[in-house]
Amino acid sequence: MKLIPNLSFDGKCAEALEYYKDIFDGEIIQAITYSEFDFGCDPLLKDKIFSGILIFGSNTLYMNDEKNEFNNCNFKFILEFFNEEDIKNTYEKLKIKGIILQVLEESSWGSLYAEIKDEFGITWGLNLEMGIL
Q1: Residue 32 CB partners (closer than 8 Å, separation 6+)
Q2: By C-alpha distance, which of 46, 28, 21 is closest to 36?
Q3: How far apart are the first and last CA of the chain?
Q4: How confident is the model at residue 62, as a pLDDT?
C-alpha cells in the first residue's frame, strides 16, 4: 500500500493545483468539478473541484474543495491498496474503535472505497486502486 494525502482548499483548489504544479514541477492528471461529477451538488459548488490529482516525482496529492465537517481540518490520509484482502483487513481493524464515515463499497468512480475516523480523530480514506476490482 502507499499513503496519499488528500488536501482540501475550501474553494481555492484550482488555484492550489496550479500553485503546487509549479512549485513541484508536477503534472495535474485530474481536475473534475462537482458539476462534471454530476451527483446533484449545491449550485455554489458546481465550478469547484471535486477531485484533483497532482503527480510530482514519485508522489501523489489528492486535492479538492471539500469542507471537512468531521474533524475540522483540511486533510485526510488516503491509503491506496493493491489487493482486496488488504483493504478489507484494514477496514475491519479501523472500524473496531473508529467511526465509519463511509462504508466499504464500490464507489461511483469505480474503486472500492471507505472512510473511517479513527479513535484519535484522524480520517482515513481506504481506496482499492482502480482497475483492480
Answers
A1: 49, 50, 51, 52
A2: 46
A3: 16
A4: 93
C-alpha dihedral, 52 to 55 to 60 to 65, nearest 10°:
-20
CA distances 59 to 23, 24, 25, 93, Å, are 13, 10, 12, 27
Strands of the sheet containing 99-106, edge to edge, are 27-33, 49-56, 59-64, 2-8, 75-81, 123-128, 112-117, 99-106
Residue pLDDT, tens place only, 67-109: 766 555 667 888 888 889 989 999 999 999 899 999 999 988 8
Q: Which DSSP state fits 93?
A: H
Residue pair 28/21 in contact (Cβ under 8 Å)? The answer is: yes
How far lies 68's CA from each of 4, 5, 7, 61, 113, in Å? 17, 14, 10, 17, 17
- Cβ(95)–Cβ(118) below 8 Å: no
Radius of gyration of the chain (CA): 15
